[in-house]
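Troubleshooting: if your tokenizer reports a length mismatch, compare your output against this known-good record of 93 residues.
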Amino acid sequence: MNRCRLHIWYTGHVQGVGFRYSVRSVAQGYEVSGLVRNLLDGRVELVAEGARDELDAFRRGILDSGLSGLIRNEEVVWERAEGNLRGFVISNE
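Known-good structure output:
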């Protein structure tokens, strides 16, 4: 399987609006593992691993879930999977 890591930083009105909980809910419909967390600078960071096509679908699913109106920008970086993510969680780190 061709596993990848998708790393996204979202900016916009993405904190204090249930954004992370909505992303976690969307993740349940895909075969991905990862985390989503608030950053001190007001952005939200998403890290997810899975098959490239599944991650692409997950990313579209986030936008199609109604969250796109809260997002001003998304910075997307594709990386090599590290294999250290289990489940999909909201991180408080």
